[in-house]
Amino acid sequence: MPNSASDPRHPAAAPLSGPPATAVAATATAASGAPATAAGASADTAGAPAAGLAVVGAGPAGLAAAVTAADLGLRVTVLDAGERPGGQYYRHPAAALGAEHPEALHHGWAAFASRERRLRAHERAGRIRYLSSHHVWTVVRDAAAAADGSGEWLLHALAGPEERPVTVRARAVLLATGAYERQLPFPGWTLPGVVGAGGAQAMLKSGLVLPGRRVVVAGSGPLLLAVAGSLAAAGASVPAVVEAAAYTNYAGRLPALLRNPGKLVEGATYGGALVRHGIRLLTRAAVTEAHGTDRVEAVTVSRLDRDWRPVPGTARRVPCDALAVGHGLVPQLELATGLGCATRTTADGTAALVLDRAQRTSVPGIWSAGETGGIGGAQLALAEGELAARSVAGRPLPAELVRRRARLRAFADAMGAAHRPGAGWTGWLTDETDVCRCEEVPAGTVREAVRDLGAQDARTVKLLTRAGMGWCQGRMCGQAVAALAGCAPGPDRRPLSCPVPLGHLAALPAAPGAPAAQLSQPSPPTPEHASDPSSEPSSDRPAGGGSAAGLPADR
Amino acid sequence: MSDPRDLVRGTPDATFTLDFDGRALPAQSGQTIAAVLWGAGIMAWRTTRQGGSPRGAFCGIGSCYDCLVTVNGRPNQRACLVAARPDDTVTTQEGTGHAELGV
């Protein structure tokens, strides 16, 4: 990240690594006539032309889309929450960790490396503006531009550790926001040493660390095989991979498998790694309890019936000092649902975006690619990113690329159906098991809200119990609460995709119905703003964010 | 046990120590605070607001907020996202991290 962005003393000195900046000030001269505040002053150059395309997310889909769109002549701004491109799949150590062979922890690293090279080349040529550590928290239609029919979008982001407000304007938006892990709670899952399977993988890929020496990997889905293989290769002992589904579930979906020999080879590679490291694969089984006082010391593994109910008398204790657990992935949709994009329920039981053959959402001007359209993996994300970019650029869609996407989607659907959680998994929960980790709401309280208070959906349970009201905003408990409420999990609906300092919100112009003249003339950041101590973003933090006085200048 | 660094032939640009609750933990430039703590075998570095239960990194990607920690006096930082820096002082975060507010 550029130094200027990490220095809270100069919030107005934004990175200007790309072409003429596409960011505009989140102006404080709002329609309400509120006095200008510092929060609105720290944007890049005001009045710059909008980007042709803004890409949210620099994982496989976003990266592929950005470089393809730039190849086709579009001016692209990429905003990514991570410090380095790659997203979660191609997550890798910071350069300072000096990894000579980052590809040792990856499948298909060359596909990333070639696109990163193109990203950097386009960046140098001024065709791509790549903004790392920029967390987009909302996307809205630019009311001023809409008035004259130009249909532009405003992307509001928090930049860097100091959460500087940045607003980017673009004519088209591609949401490549990826996914997070689906967690199904069980007794003991809040113990230290119990970590997400994807979390263990992420920490290993970026920080070169392990959660323990003896790590059980459990849950459902092909990610478990990759995680177990990487943990073992990195030096952990993995006594077992505990998979809740039965791999015979794939048998009924042979056509989709046979059309994807590459995926079969990938599966064989993972299988080979398990054999090589002496890792047992237990299918139709689950970790139904984690034991320990200060941290995990052992887990209980139980056989499951077809509905994922534990079979009585099959519980076995497996000693370990860590458990990496996850039950597939959940598309991360809040930016899309905030814009009104239509969703559908996928084969794995999660909500995903409805997309047409050109990767368009139901909202004109908004495209999406990758896991947001249904969990499907990196190869599919790369193909969809390219298709989306070609569509945004108004180019024809290559038939071979369209076929590849269809083939990989079919495989993804087969995979999702095979690993979809059975309804009986709630039998793992005792009334004392915390379902919501943030607000510490036990299953008994959720059950009471459903049984005695008449809650029939996750939202009502949330209002009655606070489950989903904490820091993570239901990302960890949402699927479980919906299951306990007896309803299908809904798509992510969060007005803000991450916590936003109140000062930034207060400084936003009132969008719809606001006088266009004010919105179209954002206040440029001035030297006064930059040197005014009151313009430190930290001073705008809500209670909880720390005060400027207590904030050392180096952070 | 072999080390993950061996797998990728990692030679960090610099090593330093991170102050965690008065302990000096070995850290490598480029690691997050959570990675430094995991590397030292520490899996919990905060307590929950209601039950006072220990928590550490869970999702590893900034989604779950379980790894909140106080860094240089600033509470509620996600340890899995924040890069460790040489003069950092990291402290276990009790509850909200704002006990001084009395709320």
Describe the structure.
- The complex is a heterodimer of chains A (555) and B (103).
- By secondary structure, chain A is an alpha/beta fold.
- Helix content of chain A is 29%, strand content 19%.
- In chain A, the strands form six sheets. In chain A, strands 1, 2, 3, 4, 5, 6, 7 and 20 form an eight-stranded mixed beta sheet that branches. A five-stranded parallel beta sheet of chain A has the order 9-16-10-11-12. Chain A has a three-stranded antiparallel beta sheet with strand order 13-14-15, with no helix packed on it.
- In chain A, β21 and β22 form a beta hairpin.
- Chain A is globular.
- The N terminus and C terminus of chain A are likely disordered.
- Chain B is of the alpha/beta class.
- Chains A and B meet through β9 and α5 of A and α1, α2, β4 and β6 of B.
Task: Give the helix/strand layout.
The complex is a heterodimer of chains A (555) and B (103).
Chain A lengths: L2 H4 L16 E2 L26 E6 L3 H12 L4 E4 L29 H16 L3 E4 L2 E8 L1 H5 L5 E7 L4 E12 L3 E3 L12 E3 H11 L7 E6 L2 H11 L6 E4 L10 H5 L2 H16 L3 E4 L1 E7 L6 E6 L12 E4 L2 E6 L1 E3 L2 H6 L3 E3 L5 E3 L12 E3 L9 H15 L6 H21 L14 E3 L4 E2 H9 L6 H8 L12 H8 L16 H6 L8 H4 L7 H5 L24
Parallel strand pairs in A: 2-3, 2-7, 3-4, 7-20, 9-16, 10-11, 10-16, 11-12
Antiparallel strand pairs in A: 1-7, 5-6, 6-7, 8-17, 13-14, 14-15, 18-19, 21-22
Chain B lengths: L3 H5 L6 E6 L2 E6 L4 H7 L6 E2 L6 E2 L12 E4 L2 E5 L10 E3 L1 E2 L9
Parallel strand pairs in B: 1-7, 3-8
Antiparallel strand pairs in B: 1-2, 3-4, 5-6, 5-7
Q: How would you characterize the largest beta sheet of chain B?
A: 5 strands, mixed
Q: What is the CATH C-level name of the largest domain in chain A?
A: Alpha Beta
Number of strands of chain A: 22
Assigned CATH superfamily of the largest domain in chain A: FAD/NAD(P)-binding domain
Largest interface: A-B, 65 and 62 residues
Q: What is the global morphology of chain B? A: globular
Tally of contiguous helical segments of chain A: 17
Task: Work out the radius of gyration of chain A.
Answer: 24 Å
The neighbouring-strand order within the major sheet of chain B is 2-1-7-5-6
Number of helices of chain B: 2
Strand content of chain B: 25-35%
Alpha-carbon distance between the termini of chain B? 46 Å
